[in-house]
Amino acid sequence: MPVTAGRDTRRAPARDVVRLLALGRAELDALFACSEAGPAPDGEYRGTLIAPLSPAFLRGAGALAGGLAWRGKVFDAGAGRVVNRVLPFGLRAVAAEVRRGPSRLDGRECIVLDYSRSSLVASGVRDELRLVRPGLYLGRAHWRGVRVADFALEA
Q1: How far apart are CA 17 and CA 19, in angstroms?
Q2: I need a surface site. Which of 17, 55, 57, 84 has the fewest CB within 10 A?
Q3: At 123, phi and psi to the nearest 5?
């Protein structure tokens, strides 16, 4: 599907989670590629898993996330930290450092959530975020260098 200047040219832009859920991998890649990093998220964001991309995800990080019932992330922009929100009771677990860095997709700037130094459980995880619209980030999860899932974070 053609995407130009952050807009889907065949139908309404994928600027909400429901529309993101309907996109295929190539469309998600195109949307991520044409989006900017935006400001660092701050506060609580509701998370939605868009698509697990590989069996490795289901065996590894996906099983962990599903077992923990991932619900989103809570960012502290001032401290450059994020923690995942999981059930039961909205527990906060699995922290990461937040910084700007190049995306594995295209080398352009994105917001990187780096778990390598802050979590033994998720030390192989790196998330990348770009702003789709104010309050909505599209994320790409990597497990040991392999992209394993896409997700949305909505304020």
Answers
A1: 5
A2: 55
A3: -60, -20
